[in-house]
Amino acid sequence: MSKPVLQAVRSAILVVALAALVGSTSGQVKPAVKAMTLTPMDYIEIRQLVNRYGFALDTGSNNGYDYADLFAADGEFMRPYAKGREQLAALARGPRLGPDNTVHYVMNHVIEPTADGAIGKAYLIEFNWDIAPAQATGGTGGGAGTGPANGWDLVGRKAGELARTGGHYEDVYVKTPVGWRFKKRDFIPSTSGADPAPLAPPSIPADAAPIDTRAPVAPAANFVAPTQQSSLSATDYLEIAQLVASYGHALDSGYGRGENGEAYAGLYTADASFAGATGHDQLVRLGQIQPRGPDFVRHYLTNHVIEPMPGGAKGREYLAVIDNGSNGKASSLFLGGHYEDTYVKTPQGWRIKTRRLFPPRPGPRDQTAATPPAASAAQVAGTAAVAAPLAGNHLAAGDHLASSLSAGDTIEIQQLIARSAYALDSAADGGAAYAQLFTADGAFITKTALPAEIKGRRQLAAFAVGDLTHRGPAFVREYLTNYIIQPSRGAATGRVYVVWIEVGENGNAGAEVSAIRGGGHYEDEYVKTRDGWRIAKRTFVPSRLGPRDIYDVDRTRSGGAPAPRAQETNAAVARPLELTALDYLQIQQLVAKYAQYIDTCSNNGYDYADLFAEDGFFAPFQNGKLGPKAQGREALARVSGGGPDGCTGAGWIRQGVHHIYVNHIIEPTPGGAKGQVNMLMIGLGGDKNKIEHDGYYEDTYVKTPAGWKFKSRIHHATYDPAQK
Fold it and tell me: If you average pLDDT over residues 516-533, what whole number do you get?
């Protein structure tokens, strides 16, 4: 790729705040002596240690001692300096701390083994949810006290803001008789530049009392360490983590399909409850009334703490609902807080049994919101697993939860994902650190308004260098979370949420230096090489809210009748139809006829039009927007190239183009069925050997007295003749 092209690519990506993503590896020097071998459970426990950090520091639980007990007997936090249990506990005390205080959001945790333990790095961003009412802004719905029609009317509401702090932690971990602890933790504020000014040394009191390291370290009072229990395996921890990571993907986009109800309800047990909804049908409805779309990204979860309990497991995690700005609109923090969950292992894998959201609030919790007391650590430390592991750890097809990858493979891919943020933001080794995370022919692709493809390590390194005024070993910008990793044939795939946050350097806040610059998700392909797991392809998809006239169920209900709410009985929400084998075959025939009729303009296009229901429509979807609908028999005949004047508009037929549909997926719905199918075109430009991929169709089907018909067909196009 030439230098001018690379510059153009960077400019295009800057439009959506992508160009400022640049990277680094962990940046820490590996020891010369042989590092110890970390087991999967070691990685899991170190990750749990770091996830517990935010809860302990923000809540001040156990008078600060829960925070202090994250450290070894001689553990130290560098700025402000504290060493030993009493000094560390004092850091986690204050009037604003409380059980619902959520400030410290930690992501991108990288762990490296050392000779005597491990070292690590993790990104930190602090959010302020305690903003004055005058600062909070509403969406497009009714004003205060009137209540919006539904969640779509609140998109863009501001309920929080960036705090003054962002950067990364640098850690040293040590394994004690009661589990992994911090030996040292230091915070490095975000600052750009290849050679940032060194931080002032920590103020260590000259007369500090010595720490008695001979005294035995007590186990954590309110946590069961993974290596100190026998009920959850490494695979259990990883599957529960992936269950929770799937939450945003299922709710926001239905894993990229747009329709989210079944995907969302599938995360729960059949009798689960959340937000007033109980059972499968009400949870489907609860998902469906939320803003969504195939590329929508909103729910970012992090700091996930998992513990065994009788009958399964329990968990806590921080939530930040971020409306990523687009089309010139600023991004905003819509909602924060933390979830408290219980999980059970079903024949289909781990599922959420209960979930409760606690909005962010400084200070002590209102006692009316208190939850029932949990089982003590001693009660659950030896609890037997709920169910035997499934053969091969597989779930039903399309379940997005379990993995046949080994625990070691999954952890290595998770570490690969986290490293990519450091490698991109730091531009380490002249961009080579980022490029080496990809295969030799790896590619980075953007599905932005100006698409780009950066392929091969030389181009990837050049891209990573980017704008060096917004790079450097202490610069942080790319926050990654909600990792979903799935096995594929001989490899693996992944979906990862990304948000780009620039924070005031060295504590200087302000709109000009602190902002959420946008976000979306990565779609990854990973392969295992002789050097370990690498990224074969990474595609960035910016967050886009789906078209409201398609996905807002309240607006699309016929007759203007009010839509049922989550608290209604299960009978109020219809379950999907049961499709017979003949139904599946007839829907497949419908799609096959579509290709035949559009390629031949048979019956002057009216055969094509008759594939649709009376109110059915066809519409293109390109560059994040739904195009004009062709609805009604005459309009559909014309869009297929025909109509009352004959086949005058079918230029593709004159070229000799044929449409080929592959990978047809059909799913039952309460009103019929829905489907997705990839589209290929062969014979473009009269070249019978030329074939192009032109996106996919998103269909809804309805059964009429004349058989199955298209209720809607939306073409998510990627082919642009002007670029060919």
Answer: 95
